[in-house]
Amino acid sequence: MNRAGLVFAGLLAVLIPLSLLAGRVWIDPLSAKGASATLILMELRLPRAVLAVVIGGGLGAAGAAMQGYLRNPLADPGLFGIAPTAALGAVASFWFGPLLPPWIASWSLPAFALAGAALAMALLALIAGRSLSDGAAGAGGGIALFTLAGLMIASLAGALTALAITLSPSAFALSQIVMWLNGALTDRSWNEVWIAAPLVLVGLGALGFAARALDALTLGEEAARSLGVDPRALLWLLIAGIGLTVGASVAVAGIIGFVGLIVPHLVRPLTDRMPSSLILPSALAGGCLVLVADCAVRIAPFVTELRLGIALSLIGAPFFLWLLLRLRRGDL
Amino acid sequence: MARLTATDLAVRRGGRRVVEPLSFALEPGTLTAICGPNGAGKSSLLMALAGLLAADAGEAALDGQSLRALPAKRRARAIGYLPQEGSLAWDIAVQSLVALGRYPHGDAESEAGARAVAAALADTGLEDLARRPVSQLSGGERARALLARVLAGQPQRILADEPLAALDLAHQLRMMSHLTRRAHAAKEGVVLVLHDLSVAMNHADRALVLDKGRLIADGPPEEALAPSVIERVWGVKARWLGAPAQRALISDLPQPTHP
Fold first, then answer.
1. Would you say residue B228 has pLDDT above 60?
2. Which residues of B touch A220 (CB under 8 A)?
3. Which string of DSSP letters, residue by residue, matches B181-195?
4. How many structural domains does chain B have?
5. Segments forming the whole domain that contains residue A195
């Protein structure tokens, strides 16, 4: 593990125990012996903390891989329509879930969300993949096309989600959908952890396999191909890796934006800036970020708990602006 | 030995034939220059010779094996390709950049890989700059670092697309003496797309002249870049002055004879 990996692994080791103590009910680690304290810790806060780390890890690594692939420090899985389409899949499951046999129905939400994420990645690959494998297009054209295709997919998914909301079958379904769209980790249990963790781990594995090819892509697409990078294989690894990590996180927590954008920028200065050096540390840093943000919304003095997705967007949007300004100055 | 051949090789790009069927064999140990006016198909031919563009007809082959049929990593170990565009996505250190050349070998972290990277850095005089971020290099240092990346892969062939573009005179000469040395080191071969005909004349062992995708001349530069060929292809009346290997091209008329 490189320096950045060690830093964020150490930070995570400190943050996880701390996060277990924080909440509406503060638990004193020295005197917490009661059954209710154990229950709060083991059944509420620990799964929530683990889920925050799993989701943050997946989103952080997906962001690092996406920035490496697009050779662009402003890339984020959320900006390219993947998270919105996963959310559309989840919303669709509120519609179609009841029609499915009961043994499938409980899995329909994560399954639909994952299918949505995969669909978005496949669409991106279809539209932009061609330009990326044609040497004539050049990296610039490829990136512009990828970005615009992602925006198109995101707005289409947004429109279809809005349609699903307007036509929602019942007031209960409506509130479910809306709550769901603003991602949160409230009341999540070990169930969600068991759904998301394996998928995120497999996704991280796929991104790990893609890491070296992403390094070669630093030289540009033509030079990377001349080094033996297979653009199609790389694209499919990323579709699998980003689809699984982002899809899994949307499946259990709704849309949590900007993690993939912010995290690689926190990690990059501590590394040699190669995409492969960023992926694991970005996973760890993503875990830290989501864990901290989730603790913050838990203890923030609002009437109801602030939604995690909203909180991260409130942090993320100004951060994006700051990145744009740095990019304009040529510091990025 | 790495004999690079084109057999009735034609290349199509963007729906248009940019290289018409042409055949030649490039022997190892030679420096070959591909010359021609803008849009003649030089870069496309070079990319096809590197196995990066599919042949529209015929084939490009290395030691008789079709490049497109070779596994990508094996092809990459045999042929080092230096594109004209040298933009880097991330501000990495020179050392990391050069180590990317080991990608097809998959051994950047092993001893053999480290030795090849160190040799490439030494060969291009970049040892002292190894830890420096690429953004802090001068244009000449940067071009050398990009070349070192190719050298680190220890290819049998080096194909470079206008490696002298954006280099000042001293760096041009340095780069050419470097590439000439690589070419004449028995097993290697170098193929360059060159715009500067004087450089091609003075440094190349052989010149291929392309015009509108057709091979117009092929031979020692004294013949392939003869004034008659230059007039026919570039539409410029010109003559060579000076002693062999120190030739300079003087155009007699400033205005082209082409309509």
1. yes
2. 83, 85-89
3. HHHHSTT-EEEEE-S
4. 1
5. 3-329
